[in-house]
Amino acid sequence: MLPGHFRRGAPLSDGVRLTDEQRLDWLRLIRSDNVGPRTFRDLVNTYGGARAALAALPKLARRGGATGTHICTVEEAETELKACRARGIELVALGEPDYPARLQTIYDPPPLLAVRGKSQFLAQPLVAIVGSRNASAAGVKFASGLARDLGAAGFGIVSGLARGIDAAAHRASMATGTVAVLAGGHERIYPHDHVELLNALLTEGAAVSEMPLTWEPRARDFPRRNRLISGLALGVVIVEAARRSGSLITARLAGEQGREVFAVPGSPLDPRAEGTNGLLKQGATLVTEAADVIAALEPILGRGFDLPAQEPDEIPLTGDTDPGDDERSRIVSLLGPTPSAIDDLVRLSRTSPAIVRTVLLELELAGRLERHGGAMVSLV
User: Fold this and answer.
1) Torsion of Cα atoms, 196 then 198 then 199 then 204, to 10°
2) pLDDT tens digits, 69-110
3) CB crowding 21-41: b at 16 or more within 10 Å, else e
4) Does 100 reside within a domain?
5) Domain span at 42
6) CB-based contact 237:130 (threshold 8 Å)
7) What mean pLDDT do residues 207-222 have?
8) 291 and 148 share a domain?
């Protein structure tokens, strides 16, 4: 059969590349109003190809009661293709050799995946690490160590480029390879202050999106992105998650996709651990070190992975000044009921030891801080 025909949600064109004309038709179809991945599949199955489906769209929309449905024009599709190629972004079609094999198996894979960076990296075994944007110092430290250890053992790390746990996982695995899954288009990075992080991780990894190049992400686009995070990975590790966290959506999607779901336990007193502790009650695999993840994934891959010795983190220092409001807020947000090392607060807040000490003194004098042995502190 020709490229573009589907069976059980996957194309029969495995290993076959679309022609330029076919890729343009696919892009036009998926960019037309109200056509998502599932509708795309149904249309291609019904009409035998994207071009025939495009011809049928106006009549179908009118019969459904729609007026003024926009169908992506040839000119619009050509403009997007040209802009992508100029930026080193490849639109990989479902079933082509470079399309991630695991992503292809989910119920609603993107017909076209916009890939920037090293597309071949997507073929490696991947583990997703996600969690709270408002992460604690302990959570950030754990996510960093886990990502670094898994990367050193041969796994790529997938995450959503968000603040907190996601960013920590990306940074720690940058040398070994990491994948950022975007909620918007490649020209609308969210959050904007992670543009430099994204550019840096492209050296050894990749960034992917199913959205148009200039698409501004909306709240409803993040759950859609989350299915790609879990779909790319063998398993998903949730490090911190509040009761209604978006990370729990990723965990649910991972379970539906047949992926392994891992959770890191946390203090019952910390709201950021409520979701992960709940996942453990529901049967998620408990994780306290990378070896726990590797032990669960080795049987799936049919081979072993070695964990090398871990090197100590470096602590960047900045000039000593009185804490500003942003610095104070950043340090306090890293604290929680779980004791955190003061050195970790310095490193993760990216401020000087003097500023951290000052903020801790402020909290202590206000009766909000408890000190523990080994230079550890926690919020009361």
Assistant:
1) 140
2) 899 999 999 999 999 999 999 999 999 999 999 999 999 999
3) ebbbbbbbbbbbeebebeebb
4) no
5) 6-87
6) yes
7) 96
8) yes
